[in-house]
Each structure stands twice: as structure tokens, then as C-alpha cells.
Specification:
401 residues; alpha+beta; Pdz3 Domain; 2-enoyl-CoA Hydratase, Chain A, domain 1; seven-stranded mixed beta sheet; six-stranded antiparallel beta sheet; 9 helices; 29% strand; globular; disordered N terminus
Amino acid sequence: MEFEKKSTNIYKVIMLVILTATITFLVTSIVYSNVEIKGNLVPTENDYSTIDVKRESIKELINKYYLGEIDEKKLEDGIIKGYVNALEDPYTTYMTKEEWADFQADTMGNYAGIGIRMLGDMEFNEILVVEPIPNTPAEAAGIKAGDIILKVDDIEYSGKELSEASNNIKGEPGTKVKLTVRRDGEIYEFEIERANINISYVESKIIENEIGYIKISDFDDDCAKDFKEQYNVMEAQGITALIVDLRNNPGGLVNQATEIANTIVPKGNTLLITADKNNKEEITKAKKDNIVKVPVIVLINENSASASEILAGALKDNNVAKIVGMQSYGKGVIQQVFMLKDGSSIKITTEEYYTPARIKIHKIGIIPDVEIDLPEGTYYSSKMPYEEDTQLQKAVELLRD
């Protein structure tokens, strides 16, 4: 993926969780930075702190008495992962060189897996299937939105172990993976063959003969470009209103979210406010004239997160769109990724973001102007029939009034 480059080679993105080869998401907001740690990751003997002495003592005992084979690299990675995980921040993580390479490849939308969007549900500590991607092995096998993944190849995983589960779901095309899921209190097992998956994150159509509809499932590198192109096509066909569907969208590149916001928000208006631990603020404003002149409604749900909340918040606070659906996920913090000398990286929560009206998003979410849920017992998916989609029906109804 080509990210937007600045002189310091820093890139801002917002991602839901972790975007992996299975299109799994732990909603997250990220700033990429090519920063190397100065000196060695492990200090010299003369510099050992108390914890370093303890580590060396344990290392000596393992080397002396452990019966099995020892992989020093895995042990070192495990030490760093444990140290970072002890922060108990689901968005601050350490990635090995291989995990970082997978992460970068996955954000391009091309990967080998089964094609599901997953969310680490921190409230219940479970892995929730947000939805199977259309026309993928997961959908063909019968995986459904709302399934809870309990095991991957008979290994149990919790919501906090989303990244580990995702790594085990990934694999070479043609190989198989077994998922154990819970659905409506029943346990099901699926054996699914992995494949190369290519995803289109922006799709559009015209409904009711005059209402434009654009579905954004993730904010990838070409998202804003695709949005503009597809809007221009529908505008030429004479649409009189626009629905932007952000349901189940876990996030992605922040600059893509703000660029799309700028197609609807007038030039000069505020789109996003971020603040670091020292309360230093950065304000992002619309830099171009907006091209969308028709009435706009944005659809969100409980799985709309991060960059989706940035876009919805920007449009809501600037009074250029009405928000319809359910209160969003509430992921309003940004991470910065620092590259280490050996190709590994650490992603650290560094900033919090707010809507243009300075409304806090983290652990709260965007509150819709018109709250409406789907029928009880149903879960939203991109293939939901219009007759069952009460949220989309409400959006159409409001645009007709």
C-alpha cells in the first residue's frame, strides 16, 4: 500500500483493531513513523535494572534445566509482548517483523485468508464475527454475522487475543482452518479452505430511482478517490440525495476519512481535533470546496468505529448530514507506530480525537440524530435484503420528506 507521504515519512491512519489477512479488526487509529530505537534493545550487563536481573536469572534457569528446545528469538519477543500487554491497552501492541509485514500487506486489501471481519468484544472478552465478506470462503462455508469464534484449530481464544486468533486463521491459499463458533447458544464447527482475497471497499448504486447510495466498508488507501468517482457518476445520472453507509466499518486511514468529509463539508470548516498527553492540539480543516450539494444521511451502527466515527462526527457537527442508526462503537484514540532496527515495531496509544464540536468519542461513540435498530434477532450484513433493513428504509423515508 502506498500511504500519504510527508517529509518526515509519517502516515496517519485509523484502524479497527488489527486488519489482518482474514480482514479481522481490532478497531484502532494509527500514525506510521519510521523511527528507530537508538542503541540495543537489551542493555549491557552493567546497565541491568532489577527486572533485567530477574530476566537473566530466569534465562539461566531455563537454559540449564528446560527439557525442550529453546528459541531465543521467540523468548525475546514474548518478553516484549508481555511487557507491552501489561499496559492493558488493547490498542498498544508489539509486532514482530513477520506480524508487521502481514499488517502492512493486509491494509492493502489483498491477503490470503477466509474473508471475515472480526471484532474483539472487550465487554464480553469474545471474538465477534462482524460479517463474512461477500463471495469469500467464509461466506460459502456458512459463517454468519453475530457468530462468536471460540476456537481456531482447536485452540481457544478470548477477545483480548484477537491478533493471535487472526494470525492462526491466516495461511497459505489451499490450506484449511477449523473454526469453532457459538451461534444462538449452539456450537458449530467449520472447516474452511483459505484463498487469496481481494476486497473492494467502496460500492455504490442508485435506489428509489433518485437516491445515491455509497457503502464504505473500510477506509483504505484509495477510498476517497473511489468515493469521489462513484459519486460523480451518480451525480451525472441526476441523484437528488445521498446515503453514506458506514455500518460495520471499523476504520482505516484517517486522511481518507477526512478527505471524504471534505467532499461534503465546506472549505475552511473543522473536520477533526486531536490532542496528545500534554493537551497539544492539532486541528484538521477542510481544504477544498465541497462537491456534494445534495442532502446527505449517514448510516452507523454499534460496529462503526474509529475513522467511521471521525467521518460521521465531522458531518454531524457541521450540520451537513443527518446520522441514522445506532450509537457507534466509541473508539477515539490514535496510535503511533515506531519501527525498531530488527524490522519489528511497537504501536503506542499517543492521542485522543474529538469531533469538530469537541465532543469526546472514546468509549462513548457517535449518537445518531435518529435512533433505529434492526429487527430483533437480526444482524446487519452487506447482503441484508432491503425489506429487512429498517435502518436503510428510515434513511430513504427521511430523504423523501
